[in-house]
Amino acid sequence: MKTRSFTLTLGILILTTINALSQTAGNPVTDLLLSAWSPRNFTSVPVTDQQIDMILQCGIKAPSARNGQPWHFTVVSNEAVMKEIVSNITPGNVIIVISGKVSQTGVTPDFDCGLATQNMFIAATSMGLGARIYGGPVAAAREKREALQIPEGFTPVILLRVGNIEKGTDAVSGASPRKAKEEIVNWVR
Ligand SMILES: Cc1cc2nc3c(=O)[nH]c(=O)nc-3n(C[C@H](O)[C@H](O)[C@H](O)COP(=O)(O)O)c2cc1C
Question: What would be the CATH architecture of the domain defined by 49-166?
Fold first, then answer.
């Protein structure tokens, strides 16, 4: 009797595991989300205009409140201009400055811009490129709004650096650890 109930429990456990795995393993989107990371070291192999075009399309496709699309994207590939914003930039990289529309109350739609940024981060990663989001240099980008030709009524919210990853860079040790699920998730069933 004991053996039968053990076999049954084991069977249920195996089926549950298979079911859970079949929902994620081989799903290219979840696999990519779970393996994406933000490299720091890039090669000078240039990112192509076609790659940037696809990344931008994915950013533009992001959802936004009331479909307001309150963003503007400035693609910077000029090395001198990039260096003034991100000092350790590698030639061949591209910086996309994501600017948000300034509302009458002076608030920018940061959340919508964040969604567009994450879409582009994931798109670049899926294309085998490296992408890193930068908040630190936003002030520098705001100061350079004229050189960046940012349209009136928009202000830089966040930056995305895209480049080819240095070969031999270890994605596992390069990625930052995450908090344990138990620490940050609660369910109300
Ligand atoms: C809003 C935001 C601002 C960030 N600003 C910077 C930055 O100024 N400099 C930098 O090196 N990385 C910056 N990052 C990258 C984070 O450090 C990185 O996403 C985080 O450590 C997770 O790393 P991983 O994607 O490799 O796991 C920023 C990320 C976000 C989302």
Answer: 3-Layer(aba) Sandwich (3.40)
